Amino acid sequence: MTANSARGPWAFVAIVWLIAALLMAAAFHISPLVAADLVPLIALLLLGVLSRVLPDTLISVSGDGIRFSFLGIVILAAAVLVGPVGGGVVGATATLARPTRMPAIRRLFNAGMHGTVGLVGGFAYQGLGGVDPLTVGRPTEVLLLIGVPLVLADLAQAATNALVLSGMMWVSSGVPFWVQVRSLLSSTGAAYVAYGMVAFLLVVLWGPAQVRWFSAALTAVLLLVVWWVFGQYGAELEAHERTTDTLIAALDVRHPGAAAHAQRVAMLAGWMGESLRLAPAALGELRTAALLHDIGLLGVRDADVLAVRGHALAGVEMLKNISFAAPALPVIAAHHERMDGTGYPHGMVGPQIPLESRIIAVADSFDALTTGTDEHPPVGAREALQRLADDPGLDPAIVAALERASSSHGFSDATGQNWLGRAKFVEREPQATSEAGVRSIATIAADLLHAGPTTSWITRHDHPDDRLGL
Amino acid sequence: MTSTTLWLSGLLLLIVVGECAHVRLVAHRGISPIASAAAVAFMLSLPHDGALGILTTLAGLLAVLVASLLGTAVAAALGLPTTPADVLGRMTNAAAVGTLAMLLSTAELGRDTGPADRWIYALALWLVTLAAAVIRAAAVSAWMSWSEQRSFAVVLQDELSTFGMVSLAVATTAVTIVLARDALGLWAPLFFSIPLALTLAAARRYAQARTTYRETIMALARLTDIAGYTPSDHARRVADLSVGLAKARGLSQREITTIEYAALLHDLGQVALDEPIPGGATVLAAPRDQERLARDAVEIVRNSGVLEDVARIVALQATPFRLMQEDNERIPLGARILKLANALDDLSGGSRDRGPVSVALERIQLGLGYEYDPDLVDDLIKLVASRPVA
After folding, report:
1. From the candidates A222, A251, A288, which should be mutated to test the interface with B, based on the most B CB atoms within 10 A?
2. What mean pLDDT do residues A332-353 have?
3. Same domain, B168 and B56
4. Architecture of domain A3-234
5. pLDDT of residue A424
6. Inter-chain touch A318–B206, beta carbons under 8 Å
7. Which of A74, A263, A286, A457 is the most buried (most CB within 10 A)?
């Protein structure tokens, strides 16, 4: 990172801290801390530090995922029980005290952001009619004078968090501000609703139910269990994702280079799917199908045309009992069907072929052309795209999607296998991937570059110049 | 302030409704955490003082039982799964809570405890529910270890690792519901069930992810069958035998699953072969070839990055037992089990008929102490004698 590009983010961090400091001064002026605030402040600070000591649970599907951290709950509870000063202090201090190693700028930014979020929550609660939780005791009062303002303060915190984070993303990586705000609100919105409800429970136990500091201990246990269960889920999900890699690894032992081919096809198919505006769930299914499309080659031992032609259906047979692969089965079965009816195994025509199969057919052909075979030398991305556009077996709309993807990812002028090295990647949440050790698409691509090309005919059976027909 | 009758009826209703929110955590056992928390809160809320304490506790238990059975019936009518063992566990739990709460009432700690001493009241309630959860786990484990003939310690360990965290959440939730009774009235059971609902949702997805994980392992195991390297269902049969041997040794569920997965994946290395071994029988292959196949399988399994325990067993599946005596090499029990189970299935050609099995056992006994662990061979002879002949 050059000094020039780093200046923007640092300036943004300074602005965040300036806002936090101004809000803090106002908070001290309006509702200064009193002696009675000390116990809740210390209890919530401990709870906040605990939430930062535990690693965030990341439930990830290929690097993108939902995160569960209960700091949001603690900040909101502090904002309500202690006021704006409490929210600000707990938010900033807990983040600064986090024991994990991270770059100074990230630690400072997160602390400033969480401090601001806590201050805003406190002001929102008091400004919207919230009362001191220690002064009410009847159910209707608890719901109206604590519950309703607390929910509104929760929403204010969610909005503040989204605005500050989007500002940082805009300054540091040029992600459009409002697009990012919208995407953050839709992805973290549900989590904030849950945070608000749990914070309400902590406040009710502390104040109206008169349990005081011991309520922090009870809540901590509940949160630990939720955190643990989410962690179990995340770990199991990752295990399951990695097991899919094992399927491809088995294929790679049989036909070296097949795994790298599968990863490249999955990457290209994903970009085309995004360009065709497929829904996130459909993109996931497309990715699974693209990774596993050639799994049937496991049963192919020598370059026998009949055996290779059977691999599409053999793959379906191998995967038929895996429930998550079910949507991929018709796609894998038809990935060698061609628009003009010259494909196999059934000779389907045009729109009879599933959209995902048509996408994989284009990605497959592109990868074959740019990798080459023993007889056909590799061609550059531009020439490959031209060849695909002239191919009557491929869907022109999808070839157009690949063209769009190649120019937006910056490899339309690349030569041969080199396109991988040229491709640009957008990391949606860079911090999420590095912490949980989930491989991002960019690291997969870097590994692939080292893998080197495979020109064996069995893996390259989809080269347009050697196409098998019905 | 809510009257006691209304409060208790509300909790009973939550038992009925909560029974439908069920999650299955292991093969035949699940839990309805919201119903269990409501049952504990109900038992804690009964008037315990005086001579009537024992009578109200008994009547309360009956009410919990009726509500649970009603909930089970409603869930069954809606086509939702439930586990009868969960209702039994809940009754044990409720009985323990009721008994301990009677002791609590003699200590003059009650709902009306003021802010100064309230944390003591809260702590006391919490300890009561935790003790009851431990009693429940011990009772369920004792019953299961008796009915399944497994060691109590192993069953208890499995029970705690599967249900421990959820039981902790159930106990804590019940305490918070009781504490918030005056502050939130009948809203308390609803609001304080939210963390449990979150836990439930995550646990459900966890169970689902584990199912698909298992399916993927099974599909990997069948790869070599479909590709024509191994006779069909060889891996499944070896896995069943291995699980039988592991159970006979009293291993924990986690260790048993690891051995099962290793058995399912042990022949994966054969996909690297250009020509299949006749009959897929690795036991007949040369020792060096056997080790190479194991290495290839390990390479594939290691690729997942999450099956390290499984990979260790697969790696040593071909190692002869004598190395343990001669070179003092440490061969894990799982690998010894897998080697033996694989040999029986290869040598008997996968048959369960008495003829081929006894021939296979004779050949195994020729390698006793040299290739195979003699103690395990004794277990194997008992195991094949007890299983039904197909």
Report:
1. A222
2. 91
3. yes
4. Orthogonal Bundle (1.10)
5. 66
6. no
7. A74
Verify that B226 and B180 share a domain, yes or no: no
Report pLDDT digits (tens) over B36-67. Answer: 999 999 999 988 766 778 888 999 999 999 99
pLDDT per residue over A39-90, tens digit each? 999 999 999 988 888 876 655 443 344 566 788 899 999 999 999 999 999 9
For A323, the closest of B212, B227, B304 (CB atoms) is B212
Q: Where are the domains of chain A?
A: 3-234, 242-466
* Residues of chain B positioned with their CB less than 8 A from the CB of A242: 304-306
Mutate one of A229, A288, A438 to test the B interface: name it (highest B CB count within 10 A): A229
Q: How far apart are the first and last CA of chain A?
A: 54
| Nearest-Cα residue of chain B relative to residue A255 | B272
Q: Is residue B203 part of a domain?
A: no
Q: How far apart are CA B148 and CA B161, in angstroms?
A: 18
Check whether residue B176 and residue B257 sit in a common domain: no
Cα separation of A209 and B134, whole Å? 27
Q: Which residues of chain B from 161 to 200 reach within 8 Å of chain A, CB to CB?
A: 165-166, 168-169, 172-173, 175-176, 179-180, 182-185, 187, 191-192, 194-195, 198-199
Domain span at residue B236 reads: 210-386
Please identify which residue in the block is written with the tokens 């192919």: A300
In a domain, B200, yes or no: no
Task: State how far Cα B120 lies from the chain centre.
Answer: 35
Helix axes B152-179, B33-45, angle to 10 degrees: 60
Question: Is the same domain home to B24 and B169?
Answer: yes
A303–chain B Cβ distance below 8 A for any pair: no
Q: Does residue B223 form part of some domain?
A: yes
Q: Which of the given ranges, B18-32, B163-177, B265-279, has the highest pLDDT on average?
A: B163-177
Tell me the nearest-neighbour CA distance from A290 into chain B, angstroms: 17
And the tokens for A334?
Answer: 């038809």
Find tokens 């045009």 and name the residue: A350
Residues B369 and B264 in one domain: yes
Q: Which residues contact A353 (CB under 8 A, 6 or more apart)?
A: A334, A337, A338, A339, A343, A361
User: 261-280 in A: which are within 8 Å (CB) of B?
Assistant: none
CATH of the domain at B281: 1.10.3210.10
Please judge whether A205 and B272 are an interchain contact, meaning their C-beta atoms are less than 8 angstroms apart: no
Cβ–Cβ below 8 Å for A229 and B202 = yes
Q: What is the assigned CATH class of domain A242-466? A: mainly alpha
Q: Is A4 on the interface with B (CB under 8 A)?
A: no
Q: Residue A256: what pLDDT?
A: 83
Interchain contact A237–B (C-beta under 8 A):
yes
If one counts the domains in chain B, the total is 2
Q: How many CA atoms lie within 13 A of A120 on its CB side?
A: 22
Calpha distance A80→B176 (Å, rounded): 19
